[in-house]
Specification:
Layout: H1 7-12, E1 21-26, E2 38-49, E3 52-57, E4 60-65, E5 69-71, H2 75-86, H3 88-105, H4 108-123, E6 124-126, E7 132-134, E8 137-138, E9 144-145, E10 165-166, E11 174-175, H5 178-185, E12 199-205, H6 209-221, H7 232-236, E13 243-249, H8 254-262, E14 271-276, H9 290-300, E15 305-309, H10 310-314, H11 318-331, E16 347-358, E17 370-379, E18 384-387, E19 392-394, H12 398-417, E20 424-431, H13 437-448, E21 454-463, E22 478-480, E23 483-485, E24 495-499, E25 502-505, E26 524-528, H14 538-541, H15 548-558, H16 573-588
Parallel strand pairs: 12-13, 12-14, 14-15, 16-20, 20-21
Antiparallel strand pairs: 1-2, 1-5, 2-3, 3-4, 6-7, 8-9, 10-11, 16-17, 17-18, 17-19, 21-26, 22-23, 24-25, 25-26
Helix pairs in contact: 2-3, 8-9, 12-13
Length: 610
Amino acid sequence: MGFTKNCKELKDEGFILDNLEVLHNDYNPGLKGILEPDDDFIGTLIRTDGNEAIIHSNDGELSIPLDKLSIRKTGYNMGAYLSFRLGEEKWNSISALIKSKRHEILNNKKVHEDISKIAHSLFVEKDERGDYYFIQFRNKGEFSFSVNNRMLEVQNSINLKAPTFIFDFARTQTCPTADVGLKRYGPWDSQIFQPKSPTFLCIGHKDNRGYFTSFLRKLLDGIPNSQWYDSGLQKKYEFQRIAIDDRDIKSFEWDAYLDVIRSLEDTRPDLAIIEIPASFKFQKDQQNNPYYKIKAKLLKLEIPVQFITSENMRQATDVVLNSIALQIYAKLGGIPWVLPSNQTIDRELIIGVGHSWVRENAFKGAQQDRVVGLTTFMASDGQYLVSSKAKDVPFDEYFQELLNNLKSSIDKLERDLGWQPNDTIRLVFHIFKPIKNVEFDVIARLVSLYPQYRINFAFVTISKHNPFRLFDVSQPGTVRADQVKGKYVPGRGSNYKIDNYTAVVQMLGVREVKSPTHGVSNPMQIKIRLPEGRADTADIDRLIFTDLDYIVQQLYSFTYLSWRNFLPSEIPATMLYSTLIARLLCRLRKIEGWDPDSINFKLKQRKWFL
């Protein structure tokens, strides 16, 4: 049985409830102890007054009987209660033990064994002679079935291949490893990239100046004899010269950063590198968090930002520096590499659709009627083409805004890419959520606006939350720090086709599992969506592109384009970019004076959000 104590019982025990998040419990009459109550997360308990609790909620201050409330079962709340009951020292010891045992419970081998045991107990019985047989399930008619307790062996899969990376316009300089290719050939766009001699504004705390300047020197020039970062940012990305405008601050206060930014001369830097304490990232009060205030101020000046925490700066390894340099080049608008594009007669755009709710809090009654919707456009070779105009709108206007974003972006790309009448244009949408038919209608309306082209499209959803698991029982795992990680985890790219429109793909393989405590590695479900529940879909069906093998390979290749680091991501860059932009915009909109139009011009084609 779970934790069932209400707030009155907790108070009677002497547990302090102030400032804890609470649920309002509504039990069905006569079913208390039988069914779980309907719980509403209503707010934070401010104080108690006898047997009443005063709650800070979206409806103002409420007074509710303590026996109608329970604490929200978060890690913080439950840890606070257990620390109270057991004593802080004992609870810390138990908590550490639980964490140390996590890898023994949450790993693919253990999950495989548990599923097998459950399947055997549910679907297999033993007869009088001691022989096992599968249980027959029957209805009142003639229908019957049994369930095999052995897991399905993968036979229907796609031969996915990791992409080869390209580093020149002629597509002759290629390499199977992105980092090696960069060191060997330089960036793909090095011949046309600007600015070749950028200026970096660098702000660090005066007490850390020695570490900060050492970090900057390593970033620019590299670390001699390093395996991963021996050439440095300037040489590796073929800059002619990088000018450093380094400034000291006396404290990690917002005003200190603001004074430096305001003191800039008429010539703006091309990028800012800024030292911050790690604590900035964990502040709950986003509106007054210097991390977001600095980012908002500089982006408003069209200056992309690269943050570095004091902790990472002091121990900047070659791997960390390598990733930072890659991000800086992308934030300046650079394209480090592209992928081989599928040579077809169709023109193709891959479009990531991201959104993020604008919501004050998670309490019941919170206003969440506005949404930030973003679309990012990429070419079939992975070039980042453009993102839609950043704007948050009421939800009932979201789909019209989606249509407007698509049309304005396609109008621009139509001119830039030189589309000709009667060209076949394929639009492949990558999207997280299962889409509604109204989104099909949006695309049908979009297609009707371009009768001069033959347009088809695919809506593809990708989800980590799905009922499927992939196992490789022959995989013994690898050893790290005297512990085995990755037992029974398939290799990256292992997959299974569920049907003609759905596949599951292992994105974190045995090599990508970081440690034994990483937990279970779930595959991603990739699904081509079709209209549902409509009487007449002929007008849309003829437009839908349904080549699952092609879609899955393309999406898999796009996971190698994150440009946050050199490792492949779990999700394709199209979705990663649009989601990062939407999420960051939701946080920046809380900053006084922020205007999303700041990123709709000079920064529109730069990866400022990485």
